Amino acid sequence: MEIIFLKANNGDSIYISSGNKNILIDTGTGATYLSKPNGRPQNGELKSLINDLQSKNEKIDLLVITHWDDDHIGGVLKWFKEDLESAKSMIKHIWFNSGLLINQYFQSDSAGGDKTIIDSEYNPNTSIRQGITFEKYILDEELSYSLVKTDTANMDNIIDGVKFTLLSPTDKELEKLLVEWEDSSYNPYTSASNKDYDKSFEELLQNEFKEDTAIHNGSSIVFILEIENKKMLFLGDAHPSIVVDSLKTSCYSKENKLKIDLMKVSHHGSKANTSDELLDIIECDNFVISTDGSKHGLPNKETIARIINKHENCKIYFNYPELINQIFTEDELTNNNFETLDVKELSL
Prior knowledge:
Low-confidence stretches: 114-127, 181-191
Largest sheet: 7 strands, mixed
Strand content: 15-25%
Strand order of the largest sheet: 9-10-11-13-15-16-17
Mean pLDDT: 89
Number of strands: 17
Oligomer: single chain
Shape: globular
Helix content: 25-40%
Number of helices: 13
Order of helices and strands: EEEEEHEHHEHHEEHHHEEHEEHEEHEHHE
């Protein structure tokens, strides 16, 4: 198995390969595919990955877009815009909870809840611009895609040898996403304009946890992925309470922890997306934070303090390792029982 956390600027893009099966989770910002510094095109790590797969005549068996934020969907939109034919030929199936699919689901007999609040026709104003654009590509090109949520059936039949356990979204989160879209470009509980790197672990652990309230983050596709005897938790930008509720439904608790080999930390290390309650219910030694640190003061050192407090012998990996010396003091790096590492050193 190979797992690569691409340099996706302030976003996520994760490539997993096992044998000749390939999974891509999110695609970062547009620059993850192609940027034009000084007007000159420059391939990002996503385009380099795609070129490599093309050279080996390999496909992307599953593309997961966890939610509609630009730092998760921007790369695939740039790919479709720049080279639609290669995208159509390479992507075999997509998980993407589009406005149209959500609407169709709530109009179906299988949906619960109060259907009277759902419009009878799809309203594009219920999704953000990037989501509409991506959905239009999918529909116009007749690509294979599906809605996924916690009770989606036949999850073991997606890719041979790979098991998925969906933890988010639930019907409740999908319903919120359809009927009420909030502009959460700035939320004091999901981001911070000022970095907290001058604070000690002890100071940060005194802060009260306040959960992210952004609807689009709460609707993130979250799953446990089991492959080659490894178990990994991919959280998108999820709300921790939703993940905890799903784990408790599966009988996990502080006494019966979910044992995983790796956790992709939610929302680029935001202090509003990793709670003590979530950390108490998992047993894990490897945590990955995906961001270049360019937006919203992320990652928050407060999040890392919580992780270390609950998992003192853990390893914390960064796909932009230059952040390590910005976040931690020399004493913190030498006098504690955790390790900070370049994600390129990750070996499960």
